[in-house]
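Supplementary Text 2. Reproducibility record for the structural model of the 88-residue chain.

All settings were left at their defaults, and a single model was retained for analysis rather than an ensemble. We include the record here because the model underlies the residue-level annotations in Supplementary Table 4.
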Amino acid sequence: MEKTFKEKVYKVVKKIPKGKVLTYKEVAMKIGHPKAYRAVGTILSQNYQKDVPCHRVIRTDGKIGNYNRGGASAKRRILIKEGYKINN
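Retained model, structure tokens:
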């Protein structure tokens, strides 16, 4: 049975290790839909599953972007705690 777009996004995001990030565009490319990065962002903005670390997905320009569990500041804190070096 073919996985849904959402399931494919979650599968890729679940594999991002602590201290690392992917961009929304990189996630879209990994699931075979390189132009669907906005759809990836929409799916992750609606994610409340704790096993899907959507905080590890950032914007292509390197900015953190938003986070549905406390906003950008919460996302920044979590990434720093996990060892990710934030440049902006």
